[in-house]
Design brief:
The complex is a heterodimer of chains A (80) and B (145). Chain A is an alpha+beta fold and 80 residues long. Chain A is built from two helices and three strands; from the N terminus they run αββαβ. Chain B has a single domain, classed as Cathepsin D, subunit A, domain 1. Classes of the chains: A alpha+beta (80), B alpha+beta (145).
Chain lengths: 80, 145
């Protein structure tokens, strides 16, 4: 993981630690995580981002879709 | 929703490009102020409507310039940033786009190096909230947001 992502290492570990429970309770929703704390789940990504700004501040914090299989992002525009 | 029509004589070669204002979302601005940090002014960026992109993407460096909130990690396929075909972890930021007809949308976008001159890809995550019509014969496109 690149240097710019290190601030979210703990949040990513928190997600992995709670993934099974989150899949049971909130599959398809967006979870908001700060540090080792799960702050809530939300119907939309933007609702989770707004809650993160309100509760955590300018960040960083993690907003992640709760899904069994994580889909990679594709961008088809030619590379630099 | 309001239509924004752009006429580009060279549409076939440039693709559907437009200039938008990129800045912090309203909630991001409040968070910066609440923590005693200045809110950078939005910047004008050249954007390409890219129906081949799953989500919006910012050119490298913009997030730091604008103090955008880091809100996630995405895994990019296809070695876009010059790496191998393996997945690359890239940061995801919260931001807002202001279009020239006055409409503002909150977005999230990954940050990757973009080809020369381009600073933003408008991907299908944003297009899902719009109506996009491409008129090749008329050298124009309309984005209704």
């Amino acid at each position: 993981m690149s240097e710019s992502l290190q601030p979210l290492d703990l949040e990513m570990q928190t997600y992995r630690n709670h993934k099974d429970a989150l899949l049971t309770s909130s599959e398809g929703k967006f979870v908001l995580i700060h540090g080792a704390s799960i702050l809530g789940t939300f119907a939309t990504k933007m609702d989770a981002v707004a809650a993160g700004h309100q509760r955590v501040g300018p960040g960083p914090f993690l907003v992640k879709k709760v899904e069994r299989v994580e889909k990679p992002v594709r961008i088809l525009t030619p590379r630099t | 929703m309001k239509p924004l029509t752009i006429v580009l004589p060279d549409l076939e070669s440039t693709g559907p490009i437009l200039d938008v204002q990129l800045g912090n979302s309203p909630t991001g601005q409040r968070a910066l102020r609440h923590h005693g940090q200045a809110v950078p002014a939005p910047v004008s960026v050249r954007a390409l409507i890219d129906t081949g992109s799953d989500m919006c993407a910012l050119d490298a460096g913009l997030a730091a310039t604008l103090r955008l909130s880091l809100i996630g990690v995405q895994f990019l396929s296809g070695g876009f940033a010059g790496g191998s075909a393996a997945l690359t972890a890239v940061p995801e930021y919260s931001a807002a786009l202001a279009f020239s007809h006055g409409v503002v949308l909150d977005i999230t976008a990954i940050e990757v190096p973009l080809p020369g001159g381009l600073q933003l890809l408008i991907g299908r995550d944003l297009l899902a909230k719009t109506h996009f019509a491409y008129d090749g014969l008329g050298n124009s496109f309309t984005l209704t947001v």
